[in-house]
Amino acid sequence: MAVSTPSLDNNMSSTPAPAPKPLHISAQPVTLQNWYKKINWLNTTLVVLIPLYGLYLTTSTPLTRPTLIWSILYYFMTAFGITGGYHRLWSHRCYSARLPLRLFLAFTGAGAIQGSIRWWSANHRAHHRWTDTMKDPYSVMRGLLFSHIGWMVLNNDPKVKGRTDISDLDSDAIVVFQHKHYGKCLLLAAWVFPMAVAGLGWGDWWGGLVYVGIMRACFVQQATFCVNSLAHWIGEQPFDDRRSPRDHVVTALVTMGEGYHNFHHEFPSDYRNAIIWYQYDPTKWLIYLFSLIPLYPQTYALKTFRSNEIEKGRLQQQQKAIDRKRSTLDWGVSLSQLPVISWDDFRLDASKEGAALVAIAGVIHDVSAFVKEHPGGKTLIKSAIGKDATALFNGGVYEHSNAAHNLLSTMRVGILRVGRRSRFGRGGGYEVGGGQGWEWACGC
């Protein structure tokens, strides 16, 4: 007896189609019902709400001189925790540091309230790997405000961010400990410690919390955020202009030397951001000074990129600038676009009334508009019409200047077909194509 079985089509038709996954909140339009879901409330509290509250508290909290000095000192300490620690030590491995300095950098970095070493470095490595793309966590292509602070205060789809390798960080005991206990580290380094120093030192507990704790952290945050925004927005690009990073002294002043960002993106493993002695990079100076401590230097294996490669990058950018400027100038008709004219035709055309054709270095030039302007006199230039004046032009009578060579190139009208090969002096160029003309030294 035949046994009937359900057909494959029936099985497929009876299986419900999987429901489409909802869009991440960042991809959904803003409505009155979901706007609050788009905000990362933890980050917004730490980088916006608490600083605003601290700003309000300053209106009723006197600022004493010792607290001001302590605020400035702790500002630079925590800023160095980010620039010298989070950035150049852990994100890029630009140098190595011994345990005391590593502990100091992990502590002061936590006091800057910018996330753990592991979280910060993972984002920064993604930023370098995926610069100016949607996978860049704080891409300036999404707007200056987004790259400065928007990426912090908004809920972004974690699947969009580019992936990077942080296995080295996961094997670092200090990084792992700080990441695991980051909340406690933040509370202690950002607020309790600076408040305690001011309180125990000169009795200003509240001022220590408001100024050295809250407001100091706010300034460090905004200064660091400028590396993500201003350093990709204003300044020059002396090493590469294919991506947005730029060098600017103002950004460097704000960020403890991180403003030479074009150099940094080209040579991220270099412990320096500024390579010229007068450029402001206190982070570089501190890393170097720590390597000079007698007996037990705190930094070692400072990495620098080969100067030969740095100069090649600089020279290539200069050449690009020259080429752009060159393209705006009149260098005459390209030799490849000029007609090839025989010697007999050249002589025939030169003999016509009003014609003033001269052959120089295998190229025919119409000098009719220049006869009266010729500094050597019109008689001299007329004597060369219909002739090969290469020897006269290149020293036979006068060694013409570079300006004369450039001006002559704007008068080209043809290539002279000749049967001989010759090499000419300065500006003459060389023959190509078996007597089909010469390419000028300028490359036109």
TrEMBL record:
<protein>
    <recommendedName>
        <fullName>Acyl-CoA desaturase</fullName>
        <ecNumber>1.14.19.1</ecNumber>
    </recommendedName>
</protein>
<keyword id="KW-0275">Fatty acid biosynthesis</keyword>
<keyword id="KW-1133">Transmembrane helix</keyword>
<keyword id="KW-0472">Membrane</keyword>
<keyword id="KW-0444">Lipid biosynthesis</keyword>
<feature type="transmembrane region" description="Helical">
    <location>
        <begin position="39"/>
        <end position="56"/>
    </location>
</feature>
<dbReference type="GO" id="GO:0005506">
    <property type="term" value="F:iron ion binding"/>
</dbReference>
<keyword id="KW-0560">Oxidoreductase</keyword>
<keyword id="KW-0812">Transmembrane</keyword>
<keyword id="KW-0249">Electron transport</keyword>
<feature type="region of interest" description="Disordered">
    <location>
        <begin position="1"/>
        <end position="20"/>
    </location>
</feature>
<comment type="similarity">
    <text>Belongs to the fatty acid desaturase type 1 family.</text>
</comment>
<dbReference type="InterPro" id="IPR005804">
    <property type="entry name" value="FA_desaturase_dom"/>
</dbReference>
<comment type="function">
    <text>Stearoyl-CoA desaturase that utilizes O(2) and electrons from reduced cytochrome b5 to introduce the first double bond into saturated fatty acyl-CoA substrates.</text>
</comment>
<keyword id="KW-0813">Transport</keyword>
<feature type="compositionally biased region" description="Polar residues">
    <location>
        <begin position="1"/>
        <end position="16"/>
    </location>
</feature>
<dbReference type="GO" id="GO:0004768">
    <property type="term" value="F:stearoyl-CoA 9-desaturase activity"/>
</dbReference>
<dbReference type="InterPro" id="IPR018506">
    <property type="entry name" value="Cyt_B5_heme-BS"/>
</dbReference>
<dbReference type="GO" id="GO:0005789">
    <property type="term" value="C:endoplasmic reticulum membrane"/>
</dbReference>
<keyword id="KW-0443">Lipid metabolism</keyword>
<dbReference type="InterPro" id="IPR015876">
    <property type="entry name" value="Acyl-CoA_DS"/>
</dbReference>
<dbReference type="InterPro" id="IPR036400">
    <property type="entry name" value="Cyt_B5-like_heme/steroid_sf"/>
</dbReference>
<keyword id="KW-0276">Fatty acid metabolism</keyword>
<dbReference type="InterPro" id="IPR009160">
    <property type="entry name" value="Acyl-CoA_deSatase_haem/ster-bd"/>
</dbReference>
<dbReference type="Pfam" id="PF00173">
    <property type="entry name" value="Cyt-b5"/>
</dbReference>
<keyword id="KW-0479">Metal-binding</keyword>
<feature type="transmembrane region" description="Helical">
    <location>
        <begin position="185"/>
        <end position="203"/>
    </location>
</feature>
<dbReference type="GO" id="GO:0020037">
    <property type="term" value="F:heme binding"/>
</dbReference>
<dbReference type="InterPro" id="IPR001199">
    <property type="entry name" value="Cyt_B5-like_heme/steroid-bd"/>
</dbReference>
<dbReference type="GO" id="GO:0006636">
    <property type="term" value="P:unsaturated fatty acid biosynthetic process"/>
</dbReference>
<dbReference type="InterPro" id="IPR001522">
    <property type="entry name" value="FADS-1_CS"/>
</dbReference>
<feature type="transmembrane region" description="Helical">
    <location>
        <begin position="68"/>
        <end position="87"/>
    </location>
</feature>
<feature type="domain" description="Cytochrome b5 heme-binding">
    <location>
        <begin position="338"/>
        <end position="417"/>
    </location>
</feature>
<feature type="transmembrane region" description="Helical">
    <location>
        <begin position="99"/>
        <end position="117"/>
    </location>
</feature>
<dbReference type="Pfam" id="PF00487">
    <property type="entry name" value="FA_desaturase"/>
</dbReference>
<keyword id="KW-0349">Heme</keyword>
<feature type="transmembrane region" description="Helical">
    <location>
        <begin position="137"/>
        <end position="154"/>
    </location>
</feature>
<keyword id="KW-0408">Iron</keyword>
